[in-house]
User: What shape does this take?
Amino acid sequence: MRILLAFGRTYPARTALMLISLFLAGLAEGVGLTTLLPLLSVALGDETHSEFSLEVIAILQMFGLAPTVVTMITVMVLGMIVSSALVLLGNRQVGYTVAHVATDLRVALIRALLGSRWEYYLRQPTGALANSVATEAFRASTAYEHAANALALFIQAMVYVVIALFVSWQAAVLSLILGVFLLLALQRLVKTSRHAGKSQTRLMRELLAHLTDTLGSVKPLKAMAREDIADSLLRHRADELNHAMEREVMSREALRALQGPMLATLAAGGLYAGLVVLKLPLSSVMVLIFLVVRILSLLHKAQQRYQRVASQESAYWALQKAIETAQADAEPGGGKRAPSLQDAIVFERVSFSYGDRPILDALDLTIPVGAFTSLVGPSGAGKTTLLDLLCVLLAPQSGSIRVDGVPLEELDRQRWRRLIGYVPQETLLLHDSILANVTLGDPALTVADAERALRQAGAWEFVEKSPEGMQTVVGERGGKLSGGQRQRIVIARALAHRPRLLILDEATSALDPESEAAICQTLKQLTPAITVVAVSHRPALIEVADQVWRLQEGRLVRIKGPRETCRRFGERAPIGPEGGAPTA
Assistant: This one.
């Protein structure tokens, strides 16, 4: 029951109130049940009362209550009412905690992921993260609910045990030993559920990770008639998950089916032992049989709940491990200085590598504020890595990056990033309105901000002509729009919060030449109010740029811009006619 301890530390006040309520509920029920034996003695006309009955009668008389049938029934009913009220109070705390567990775990995971290093995030399958947020958080809260209910049943059973020991400790101990032995015999089924639950957690993660990747590639799969391959892989994982669920259900139902015969056997054995072996009064035997059967029934129910905990709690530990791993790989705090962007961004002998593969090697680069700078080069040359360094998603392994003379690591990371507008190569649009895609739900951004950004991106003309204007839904991944329209909305999103630096990573690579040329002219018009840094292979972005650098084998060569500032590791780079690219 480690999960109860874990949640007890997270929600101490409510857990303590739950435990106190359940304990008092059991105590109240026990007080009510103490009148059962003398009541049966009177009803059955026993000539002699057991020692326990006499003690109960003496306690009633001590409080000025006559040991009549009405009095004893009243005490019993009041005990049950008080017990039910306290159980309701305890279960209310359980319900409140269950309602918050899933939400709190989801929020903790999302915060940990968003606060982690970029390299960590890249290693995580998107489908596995979605599974953690949706399925595992729900299963974790369900595990807590079953654990709390199992504890409540156990407390209630212990109250009955105490009463049974007062009636006849010999018969009670013998019955309990047999009952515990049978419970232990069924523990194998609980272990089967635990293993099946762990398998479900692992297989669900793998299935959703693969499903997410497949759905992201469904168009080319269908175009090549290869969806059957994806279908067979998904079906194989689904079959494994189904097998694990079958094992859990079978063990749960087997445990439930075996409890009936066991309770009947113990009841018969207890009746024989009380009447024949111990020669107890009939009233004592009846009460004892009721208590023993009740105890074992409660313990069996507790074992059923515990079995559900065993099958579900693996989701909690997997989710907790994901949170702790992300927190352990959190981004460093960064500096405290407020950023400015008045002069230039300067890379000074910056180097970076992925493992043993060098990407940037003592790179020097100056990005003047207000200028349009383009970076070109073959795939894998390190252009995107350079942009990631600029966004502080990565950190240089040597050298430094300075903004207006201040090292980037000394700047407040979040305030620096708020100066950046980022346009990725993929036009990632939500299945929502144009307005929602521009503002991303940021409450600080108004409709006027969205309109301004759309105008800056050259998108207002087609948005204004849309059936519902900015409330027009763009469809799944923007499928109702053309490529150029999607790209302009993504650019508007990057401009909505009034950035000082606009970064474009192959932002026009999927556009036709006409659309690309139009967008490039739009981007050029943003300068000098906004500094633009663009990565591209396309000529249109090179033509509108104020300076163009080629990145290859970790080295930068200026192919467009003032000759006097051209550097290649301290040397003048070759420049073609009229400042163009060098001829082959």
About this structure: Strands lie at 344-354, 357-368, 372-376, 398-403, 406-407, 420-423, 501-505, 531-535, 547-552, 555-560. The first helix runs from residue 2 to 10. Residues 563-584 have pLDDT under 50 and may be disordered.
